[in-house]
């Protein structure tokens, strides 16, 4: 999910995060679908790097662009992250490994149909876990339905 590729905006984002301001961006792209859909506003806030956890959605700087992707692997030393892998929920592969300096902010909410969805809530986390589980189980479920259907015909 690309949020922007404007150098001036990158600098402004850094300044606002340094002053503990929340930022609202309109995200573009489908890499975080269905958690964040194309065109939906996302809310960002500053995060202490020691608080980063696997499963958090973060805004990272990759070259001159900003991406909002989920942390899928986090390596820590002495309580601080040393490297991480990010991946969009709708993507099959991970981004290149990043250091903690690439993290700009944490995505804390998404606005959908006029209401804010807290991405740290139990409900949002459960929905993500269920979608991920169903994604991997779908081929198995289709095979089971086919087997039952064939068995009924015999």
Overview of this structure, please?
The structure is a single chain. The relative contact order is 0.16. β5 and β6 form a beta hairpin. Strands 1, 2, 3, 4, 5, 6, 7 and 8 form an eight-stranded antiparallel beta sheet that branches. The model has no long low-confidence stretch (mean pLDDT 83). It is built from two helices and eight strands; from the N terminus they run βαβββββββα. The chain has 154 residues and is of the alpha+beta class. Helices cover 29% and strands 34% of the residues.
Element-by-element helix/strand order: EHEEEEEEEH
Helix content bin: 25-40%
Question: Residue-averaged pLDDT, rounded?
Answer: 83
* Fraction in beta strands: 25-35%
Class inferred from helices and paired strands: alpha+beta
- Beta strands, count: 8
Q: Tell me, what's the shape?
A: globular
Q: Main beta sheet: strand number and arrangement?
A: 8 strands, antiparallel
Give the tags.
154 residues; alpha+beta; 2 helices; 8 strands; 29% helix; globular
């Amino acid at each position: 999910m690309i949020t922007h590729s404007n150098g001036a905006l990158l600098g402004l984002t850094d300044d606002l995060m340094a002053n503990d301001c929340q930022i609202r961006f309109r995200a573009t792209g489908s890499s975080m679908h269905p958690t964040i859909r194309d065109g939906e506003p996302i809310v960002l806030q500053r995060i202490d790097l020691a608080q980063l956890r696997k499963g958090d959605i973060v805004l990272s700087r990759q070259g001159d662009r900003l991406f909002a992707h989920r942390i899928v692997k986090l390596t820590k030393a002495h309580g601080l992250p040393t490297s991480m892998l990010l991946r969009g929920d709708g993507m099959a592969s991970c981004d290149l490994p990043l250091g903690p300096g690439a993290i700009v902010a944490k995505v804390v909410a998404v606005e959908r149909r006029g209401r804010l969805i807290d991405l740290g809530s139990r409900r949002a986390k459960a929905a993500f876990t269920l979608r991920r589980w169903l994604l991997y189980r779908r081929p198995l479920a289709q095979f089971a339905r086919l087997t039952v259907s064939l068995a009924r015909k015999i």
